[in-house]
Design goal:
Layout lengths: L1 H8 L9 E6 L6 E7 L3 H14 L9 E6 L3 H9 L5 E11 L2 E11 L10 H13 L14 H18 L7 H4 L9 H6 L2
Parallel strand pairs: 3-4
Antiparallel strand pairs: 1-2, 4-5
Helix pairs in contact: 2-3
């Protein structure tokens, strides 16, 4: 049944033909949300919608700062889920040639963020961690993620691990956010009600 649903949602999709859109808070490395699918408008909109539901609504004085890659779908999704005057948005546009970075441009999109603030290093670092730790993202093999649903569930578990159990200098992202006071263990995670 899952395979049929994926074919209906993503016509012409090949096994494993999907992307993971991930939102990470830059200062605490908190994995906020993710969405898995093809590079379609509704998949980008889904992650921004998730952010709009978990974050406090931004205001003109307490803006939401977002920095992304050059994917133009984010702008449409942001404007569909947040007020334009409450978002500071910049993007890094990269041009690759034969697998190497040729040039990159930092673009101020909404409310003129500082050029030095426009950076995607935090998410690129997190992307590297995901590729190291989640075999579904490494290569086409027995472990290769063949279904979008299974990759999404795997990311759900990794999000919990990253936010509650993975400590850096004795603090997890959730401790840094003030949402918990202890480093969780797998037993805590599996036995929570």
């Amino acid at each position: 049944k899952q395979k049929r649903v994926e074919q209906e949602e993503y016509p012409n999709a090949q096994p494993g033909d999907c992307f993971a859109y991930i939102a990470v808070k830059r200062d605490t490395k908190l994995h906020l949300a993710h969405s898995v699918g093809k590079r379609l408008d509704f998949v980008a909109d889904h992650i921004i919608w998730k952010l709009s539901n978990i974050l406090s609504p931004p205001t003109f004085h307490y803006t939401l700062e977002i920095y992304t890659d050059g994917n133009k779908q984010y702008l449409t999704a942001l404007l569909g889920n947040f007020r334009k005057d409450c978002i500071v948005y910049g993007r890094v546009i990269k041009h690759m040639q034969v697998g190497r970075l040729k040039w990159r441009i930092k673009e101020q999109v909404l409310r003129c963020p500082k050029i030095e603030d426009i950076d995607t290093n935090a998410i690129e670092n997190y992307d590297g961690i995901l590729r190291e730790r989640i075999s579904r993202l490494v290569r086409r093999s027995k472990c290769h993620s063949k279904q979008r649903y299974k990759l999404e569930k795997h990311l759900d578990i990794f999000q919990s691990y990253n936010n509650l159990m993975k400590s850096d200098c004795g603090k997890t992202p959730m401790i840094l956010e003030g949402k918990t006071s202890k480093i969780w263990q797998w037993n805590d995670f599996f036995n929570i009600r």
